[in-house]
């Protein structure tokens, strides 16, 4: 994409990445991609805000050159040190030899650790301002959104908030960068929730602190480092992030995530009965086969819904490994305060339900019931599974 003006003398100079399969080496983005958003303010001083991943160096420099010669840059603002935001910085410094890097105090050491850069680096204080001519920039520290050194940059003149990873999402641009020109806003909102649950959810309290810190600031446009630039309705993405962050303590909204795994089809057969009971109990469950669906796509449902159904067999006197991996990822991401039930088949020994109960303790989940059955399901087991699901759905209502 060519450069795009987002406000007076302010331009998007980012790049799309449609070739990376795993964001952070963990989260699938194959087929949808991601954008690395960067911005230039052209004034008496030329400012580059945030950078791009190293694999996009040529494309990124071409974007900048359409607005200003790279060696004419005066400042580079590093809001966040993660390499998808800073990967081109060593090469840029070789071209723009006089550029000064502005960052938070904790980012100073990281610049040295990651890139061996220590000269012409200036730390900026929380609330500090910088006049670059007709624009005044204010730096606001928002630690642990989602690294400790993170800050955002606010243009007090135009009302543009350069929010870095905050308010971001997966998905390369489909011809436009703006929310009001996007023809499939629901796609970006869905991928923003997946991004939040994958990347940011563990730090929901700092997210709420940051939103509170920015309360009262006259935000006209939110320009994150990934995903849409919100200019028509910036409050929309703020409200979504506030809602999602709130799930960390509320346990989420009424809904059920049904997770299952099955070795020989016995647990899966009972899962269908449980799912029917849930549906007849008034809730449509979101169902995931944990052996075949990447946890990246499961986490948004777990994060959002207050009810979890775990269906998995006993495996070597413990829990079916793929299920255990999903639940351990939930522990890592602080997916807490849920209500849950368990069902599953066993062969020569039980053990899965006990393991589920142990993991649930770490998550502050209330496991209300469990249904363990030997071998395959019988008519009585199917009926028990149906009633289990129905009771659980009604208990959430």
Question: What do these coordinates show?
Answer:
There is one protein chain. The chain has helices spanning 57-65, 83-86, 89-95, 105-115, 185-200, 204-213, 234-250, 266-280, 295-304, 321-332, 352-363, 379-396; strands at 4-7, 10-12, 15-17, 22-23, 27-28, 34-36, 39-42, 46-49, 75-77, 100-103, 121-123, 129-131, 136-141, 151-155, 160-164, 221-224, 253-260, 286-289, 305-311, 314-315, 318-319, 339-346, 366-374. The relative contact order is 0.10. Helix 4 links the parallel strand 10 and strand 11 (121-123). The protein folds into two domains: 4-248, Ribonuclease Z/Hydroxyacylglutathione hydrolase-like (Metallo-beta-lactamase, Chain A, 4-Layer Sandwich); 251-396, Rossmann fold, CATH 3.40.50.360. The chain is built from twelve helices and 23 strands. A seven-stranded mixed sheet has the order 1-2-7-8-9-10-11. Helix 10 packs parallel to helix 11 (352-363). It has 397 residues and is α/β, with parallel strands linked by helices.
